[in-house]
Specification:
Blueprint: H1 6-24, H2 27-41, H3 48-57, E1 79-83, E2 93-98, H4 99-104, E3 116-119, E4 123-130, E5 133-140, H5 143-172
Antiparallel strand pairs: 1-2, 3-4, 4-5
Length: 183
């Protein structure tokens, strides 16, 4: 292996990075990097070039219809390729979607109930992302317990939102039912 010395290898890699920087920023370089990333993630398709063209043409999430972005840092609207991890011998792409839908997708959900899944290690599990924050609780012995937790959790969350709305209206004096001040 050339450059066995760590310092020599580091200097070589730095020089190589600078030498090939412009090449990686060309459309061909971007396409090559994207294909390598998909391969590393285990995404399989019949015709790579055809799929890449389709990927570029999709501008809105195929699940929630949100406008997709291509960002250096992952955001809710970052374009993602959703695929089935259980399929390893043929095409496994499901959607081109936003990061939020890709995280909330029900690919591991065999329960028939959104956000409830079964995992041998955790038993039944509730997992939901709301406004960028992920709420997870696992260890339920039955699916019914997990579903009950989900609905009670969502109910409590809704009550908190309602209370915040009432409080803000009371403080601003716009709540008709609980009008403050002189009448």
């Amino acid at each position: 292996m050339p450059h066995k010395d760590p310092e020599e290898r580091k200097a070589y890699m730095k020089e190589y990075y600078q030498r090939t920087k412009e090449e990686r920023q060309t459309p061909a370089g971007i396409k090559s990097k994207r294909k390598a990333t998909w391969k590393a993630q285990g995404i399989i398709f019949n015709d790579v070039d055809k799929f890449y063209d389709l990927y570029l043409s999709i501008t809105h999430c195929q699940i929630c219809k949100k406008k997709l972005t291509v960002d250096k840092k992952t955001t809710h609207s970052t374009k993602c390729v959703d695929h089935d991890h259980n399929i390893t011998d043929g095409p496994n792409v499901r959607y081109i979607c936003c990061h939020a839908c890709n995280c909330n997708n029900n690919s591991r959900n065999t329960s028939g109930e959104p956000n409830i899944s079964y995992r041998k290690r955790d038993k039944w599990r509730f997992n939901k992302t709301i406004k960028g924050k992920t709420y997870t609780k696992s260890g339920f012995k039955t699916k019914r317990e997990a579903i009950h937790y989900k609905y009670s959790f969502l109910h409590k969350l809704k009550q908190i939102e309602i209370n915040k709305e009432i409080t803000s209206r009371l403080l601003s004096g716009t709540c008709r039912k609980h009008q403050t001040g002189p009448r």
